[in-house]
Amino acid sequence: MTVIAVPFHLDEHLPDLQLPLAPGRTLAPDLPPGTPWERMAVLYEEVADAVAAEVRAGRVPVVVSGDCTTSLGVVAGLQRAGRDPHVVWFDGHADVQTPETTSSGYLGGFPVRQLVGGSDRTAPDRLGLRPVPEEHVVLVDVRDQDPPEVEYLARSAIRQVAVEEVGGVLPPGPWYLHVDVDVTNPDDLPGLLIPAPGGPSLAAVTEAVRAVVAAGGVAAVGIACTYRTGGGAHRQLAGLAAELSAAQ
Question: Which sign does the torsion angle of CA 135, 44, 96, 139 carry?
Fold first, then answer.
């Protein structure tokens, strides 16, 4: 297991981002001028190369960043190393927006749709990311969805399950296990950037992650630290981070 830190929120470098795991390597390149997706494509090219190298060496990379779009680089890296992963995605939000459906314009709401071949293709195409079949994606405890996301998921093959159900519906491995920490009830984890009301306790999320890791098959882990620096969330996440770092 190798912890790779990517201290960015989208294309913004966050050198003071407080992480729940000590990194063995940090990726913080200077990004060139361009649109946010063009800049993120440069960043995620480094992520993809780092992930591919770790996987080829027989290790499980744990990539810790400030949002969910880093997943594009992680999955591209797995594919470069000859692994075509199923995706197990813990998140309070659906992340299946497109430029046409988003009401906020927030790019962090796009990555699941990008992973399955839709939405903005700038970064996926530059990374050579092959679409993950919809039926290979499981969303865990997604509850904050805009109407276009509800409509899309209703006709897609992406599965949605509650935290306590995930251990019984795991797809065949290998898996990319992604945890946006805002899957947690915001009462348990204050300081979240975009809290999703309700949802499971931090203890319940930790137990579900433990079940996924124990089942074997995790090829890479992504942790999206979607919280404000200075609130101590990274310390509260120590137990969850320990379960995620046990993947091997």
Answer: positive
